[in-house]
Structures are given as structure tokens and as C-alpha cells.
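Entry under discussion copied across for reference:
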Amino acid sequence: MFYEQHFDTVLGFVTRRVDSAHLAADLTADIFVAALEGAHTYDARRGAPLAWLYGISRNVIHTHFRGTVRERHLMARISGRRLLDEEDVSAIERRIDADRAARGLAAAHAALSEPLRAVLDLVALDGLTAREAAQALGISSATARVRLHRARKALRSAGQALDATRPALLEAAQ
């Protein structure tokens, strides 16, 4: 009975504010659903049922348009941006894998003892020969070659450990 008494009035209120018949019908239905859900909050001392319905109508319409504005803002933010294709995703995954490997090798490098790291850095980073690195460190060439061998072996082991964990990491990511 309440619905039938106020339907035309609420529909008129809505149609004066929207330009689509379907939207008007949807919003009118939403208004009556909200009224049914909030019926326990109606207080006759505060005004007539129609005034209460107009308040609900204003809130429902406002909420709809606020959501529409938010949606337009979001669409404007993403418009003009290119979505990633499979090639882009693959490139990003390769970069992530390379960065993970680099962090692993950096950690392995940091875990080397100072004497091994010193020889390795002089040879690998500074471009010295093993003999020149030995001279710079004041050690024999044989000692420098042994330390260099041990450092490279440790880094290879760390790299192989990373390679062994990569399939498990990829599986976990999917």
C-alpha cells in the first residue's frame, strides 16, 4: 500500500533529476528498497512519510551520481594508458628474475670473507689480473689465484642455488 501510494511521486522526483528511463526505474526501485531496509528509522514526529522518502531519494540519487563521477575520474586516469600485453609481462618477469638473481649474488658476495672479496673485487670490478691483485694486496700470486678460485666457486654455488629455486618461485607465483 505504501509503495503504491508514493510510487508516482518518487518516480516523478527521480525523473526530474535523470535523463534515462531505465536509470529512473532502477533508482526508484533502489529508493523503495532503502526505505524498506530503513523503515525502523522512520519517526512520524520528524515529518510526513513523503518527506522521509524524499530524503532517501536525495541520498540514493546523490550516491549514484557520486559513484558515476568517481567512475569517470578513474576512467580519465587510465585513459591513454596502454594495457600490458604478453610480451610486456614477459619482459617484466625477466627483469624481476634478473633483479632477484642480482640480489642473490650481491648477498653471496657480501657473505664472502674479506680476503676472498678483496681479490674478487680487484679482478672482477677493477679489471686487474690475479698477479696485479696479489701485488696490490701484498700476497703471493698463488694465494691470490686460490682466493679468486674460492670466491668464484662460492658465487657459482649461490647462482646455482638461485637457479634451483626459480622453478619453485615461478610455480608459487602462478
Q: What stands out?
A: The domain at 2-78 is CATH 1.10.1740.10 (Rna Polymerase Sigma Factor; Chain: A).
